[in-house]
UniProtKB/TrEMBL annotation:
Cellular compartment(s): Endoplasmic reticulum membrane
Pfam family, one: Glycos_transf_1
Reaction(s) the record says it catalyses: an N,N'-diacetylchitobiosyl-diphospho-di-trans,poly-cis-dolichol + GDP-alpha-D-mannose = a beta-D-Man-(1->4)-beta-D-GlcNAc-(1->4)-alpha-D-GlcNAc-diphospho-di-trans,poly-cis-dolichol + GDP + H(+)
Protein name: Chitobiosyldiphosphodolichol beta-mannosyltransferase
Entry function: Mannosyltransferase that operates in the biosynthetic pathway of dolichol-linked oligosaccharides, the glycan precursors employed in protein asparagine (N)-glycosylation. The assembly of dolichol-linked oligosaccharides begins on the cytosolic side of the endoplasmic reticulum membrane and finishes in its lumen. The sequential addition of sugars to dolichol pyrophosphate produces dolichol-linked oligosaccharides containing fourteen sugars, including two GlcNAcs, nine mannoses and three glucoses.
Record carries keyword Transferase: yes
PANTHER family to which the protein is assigned, alphabetical: BETA1,4 MANNOSYLTRANSFERASE (PTHR13036), CHITOBIOSYLDIPHOSPHODOLICHOL BETA-MANNOSYLTRANSFERASE (PTHR13036:SF0)
Membrane topology classification: Single-pass membrane protein
Coiled-coil stretches: none
Native source species: Crocuta crocuta (Spotted hyena)
Gene3D superfamilies referenced in this protein's UniProt entry, alphabetically: Glycogen Phosphorylase B
Domain of life: Eukaryota
Amino acid sequence: MAPSCLAALVTATSLLLLLLVAWKRWRRGRAGRHVIIVVLGDVGRSPRMQYHALSLVKSGFSVTLLGFCNSRPYDELLQNNRIQIVSLTELRKLAVGPHIFQYGVKVVFQSVHLLWKLMCREPAAYIFLQNPPGLPAIAVCWFVGYLCGSKLIIDWHNYGYSIMGLVHGPRHGLVLLAKWYEKLCGRLSHLNLCVTNSMRKDLAQNWGIKAVTVYDKPASFFKETPLDLQHRLFMKLGCTYSAFKARSEPLDPDVERSAFTERDARSGVVTHLRGRPALLVSSTSWTEDEDFSILLAALEKFEQLILDGESLPSLVCVITGKGPLKEYYTGLIGQKCFQHIQVCTPWLEAEDYPLLLGSADLGVCLHKSSSGLDLPMKVVDMFGCCLPVCAVNFQCLHELVKHEENGLVFEDSEELVAQLQMLFSAFPDPAGKLSQFRQNLRESEQLRWDESWKQTVLPLLMDT
């Protein structure tokens, strides 16, 4: 391209940008009650940002939510006419060139694409950004905020560089670059939120960033599932997954049976089956920070206990979620020859997931934070459903799971199987430890997301 043509292109682009900025500044008076939320990831798998959107709307704001639309968000979000979801284009991995070139192309594409999408939106008083991923979103959102007078709020769920480090190693050049970028650009925000007190302290001490802890809390729809809804869910899932189907057909044609429940069509009464299996649930993103070989090893040991004559129930183990390592682990699961344990890995509709948690007997969490500073939201949701949890231990887990109070903490498969043996002995004993943990959760009067948000986040927006 000739130098004169290049200069003309740069001049025209600059003038266009200046005109767009002037136009947006002229309209800024309309921005006071509008918020843009940016998720450089799948909106449907970003519950905390969906909760932010719903809370903002309830507080009088209109919301534009930008992100990848790979999974269906909550119906409440889709049905709200004050929330607009704008789809971002996801650049899939290139098949040519070295890895660093592919990554560079992806970052440049995302930067330009996100900049364009943000500049085309209605001016906003605030830009809420989920981090991670923050590269390149932090810099782009700050730049747009600078041009248009929006205040940048970063919600720190974890550190992006620490997640990259699980794949490439902590000393890899890309990981070190990402850490430098995150540290530098993270200081550009007007306000920072984070998910634990441990992260708040780390941000202050090592990053020079002052943040406010906003703990994840369950939404109101995470609650214990009534028995009739449990039966309906089991019958629905039984159409696709054999683990939910009845082991034997009822003799009475007016009785409808699942693996766990049966319903008398004449009276409409639903009851638990005698001798039913225990329902164990784990949810995952199938990433490197969750080692499911721990659970599989524990299940093998649990099976052996049954074969050795221990008085333990059969298990149905449901592992929900999508992610890069799902195929690897489903391959391992397929190699197991369980007689008393069934494992299925469904992807549930958004409205079915809370119902499943509210129907389960025990939750298992294998999340090990890449930074050691974030907490698994899946456990928050389980607690909202009064579902006791066994969780693998890491640095700040004590901020959520209280050992021997609302669940148990384990280090390895040996500890996990010992906990399963203790919790499921004489199942379903209403006087057992499992029932005691559930009762403790019922009596804890947990704060829900909306109440917590009004107490912690809304006052911050009024002050900035």
